[in-house]
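SEQUENCE-TO-STRUCTURE ENTRY
===========================
Question of interest: how does this chain fold, as expressed in backbone structure tokens?
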Amino acid sequence: MRNYTLFAFLFFTLSNFAQIKGTITDEKGNPLPFVSVFEENTYTGTTSNEQGQYQLNVKEAGKNKITFQYLGFKTQKIAVSPGSKVIVLDVKMVEESFALNEVVIDPKNNPANAIIRSAIANKKENSEKTSRFTADFYSKGMFKVKDLPKKILGQKVDLGEDMSSNLDSTGTGILYLSETISKVSYEKPNNLKEKIIASKISGNNRGYSYNTAALSTYDFYDNTLDFDIKLISPIADNAFNYYKYQLEGTFFDANNHEINKIKVIPKRDKEPVFEGYIYIVDDSFAIYAIDLDIKGYRMKNELTEIMTLKQSFNYNSENKIWSKNAQTLYFKAGVFGIKFSGQFNYVYSNYEFPASFAKKTFGNEIVAFEANSNKKDDAFWNEIRPIPLTIEESNDYNKKDSLQTIRKSQKYTDSIDAKNNKFKIWDILKGYEYKNTFKKYSFEYDGLLNITSLSFNTVQGFNFNSGFSFKNWNEEKGKSTSVSTTFNYGFSDERFRVVGEFTHRFNTINYASVAVSGGTKVAQFNSAEPISKFVNSVSSLFFKDNYMKLYNLEFAQINYNQYVANGINLNGKIAYEQRKPLLNTTDYSFFKRDDIYSSNNPLAPNDFETPAFNQHHLLKANITARINFGNKYISRPDGRYNIKNDKYPTLFLSYEKAFAASSKNYEFERIATAVQYDLSLGNKGLLGTSFKAGKFFNAENISFIDYKHFNGNQTHIGTSDRYLNVFNLMPYYTNSTNDSYFEAHLEYNDTGFMMNKIPLLNLLKSTLNLGFHSLAVPDRKPYSEFTVGLDNLGFGKFKLFRVDYVHSYQGGIQQNGVVFGLKILNVLD
């Protein structure tokens, strides 16, 4: 009953509005996009679309004048006669004539500098005026693609039916179109609560848009703005270290405020800076408008060519507040000859500025969706949407929404599946997938020539995987189930191994899931697997270095995982393990064939007969808690999405127990903890930290497998983006312990703060990395490493490489080396 009452109230409210609509053009008749349109001395406003069309709902026509504000054109105020529910008002705007007194611009007395200094001095006061508000929020987002090929590097490009349905034969069209309407409560610096009233995605009536106010807050009164990295505001406290300014003219708005148009010029091209124009009100030195560009390389995002951010503010003479009423974010990107573009339009209206909020206004839930927010019909959207749709957008909605009904039908999905499910004789070798889209299940066979799984080690020789998997899913309930089996065959040891796994996710609210697995496989002594199969294969076959040490594991285990409270995830596991030692079975390599591989015994690399341990079995139980302090989340009808609060560290707590072993001496207990934290240094970079500690009990004679092993690296190849979990030159097993341990990793990335200022080196567009790594275990001298290197290296748009010089020290033994970071290996392995 409440929903019907709410709907009736909303309908009654809207029906009492007057709608003013029309087209805004320049003097030549060209449409003007994104013109700010608002009712004078109110917070009722909108903007025009790309075709210059606008529509504005006002409570009573004729009560206030309608203001039309657009950068480069004179602001107009037009009175509208009352009486009609729909008023057509077309507006022709006249270009602004800027005035600039003739002055001799002395670098020491630049008039623009004086205005910017006043803006900086007054920004706290101006920011405070809008530091606490509620508002209605509208967002429209669109992604477009141009020249999308059918294949890239020989691989078929598959965007799915929903995304690709509106592309023409050249691969051009709208990939994504979405709108949201919400009610926002905000308090600086970071308290936010947003209630999504309506959400719409073209071609997806079950979709919930990600266009939220939480992801679109760009405040130039702050010193930095977050665009992957921290960009410097043109009125930051230290702005003069990064920008030069030029006063291009002044003009008066409709309220007789003098507005200064100031050109923002970066001092150094590679810095994290904006360029373009900022408009400052002369008396209050508040922001009147923003029209700034961001080049992709300046925010270390080479795929983005340029991003343009525009903001406009309107003035309320009753409370004397300049508040943001419209924002547009546009970007262009490209790779492999494909061009992408995106545009997000935001409208803020119906502001209220309370003196304070109730204590429980804000919590960890930052975004929530009303029930049936994605079920609003066209009549609702046509009535409440502040920015009219363009012809292209209307066509996209009409086409995709009509196609959706067809494509969700069993007849259609069965016909598409029947085409794709045809079995071909060569599928025996290359693999095969059978899918029933309507009933939501699929079956997959990996094939006998699964080349991507091929690898080499000295225990198995060349080996590869194949297997089967079955999956079904229920998107509405967030459930999914999979059953898989993986077959592995080693050509040198002539051994066939099989692992099976069953996993089930119960929901997407607390993400409760269970996994049951078992079988036989080869496993690294270090369960963290510090050596990837790809790197080990190259190291062995080309350089005759077999750093990967393996044993045979027969196991059965069950794992359960769930969020038990906000930000607290628990993972429990119990496993039966039968461990058997393995020996090398091959001496094959491409080069250095006269050299000899080390043995498979990590404790005795020159002993080819003594196994690293005796065969045994045991049960192991482990429980681990991950705690994200201050965790925020978005509540959607189809799930809950956790957002880590970067202000706080992540804490890990773990307890492990081995029992019921074949011999009592293999039983032990271990407690462990870890803390990870990224300290933002603003525009000066990011300091990443990771600290780990643990302690064994009753572990004097346990198997070497159960020791705490540390992630060393002897290959001189790095495979991760950051080195906060690895020692770059430390041998893999020399410091393993069954006692207490403490390790620390610190890595500073300047995000270009220093590198951007060094001539010639700044042409690399790289970042400087400084690192320190330390390990302490009983009965050994501490191990320490110092690193210095360059990240974000590469060619053109592809910054996939990193190079570090490393100096290590332990007990008087010093080593020096270079580690080459190849981030692409994360994808290949």
User: Anything to note?
Assistant: Confidence is low (pLDDT under 50) at residues 1-15.
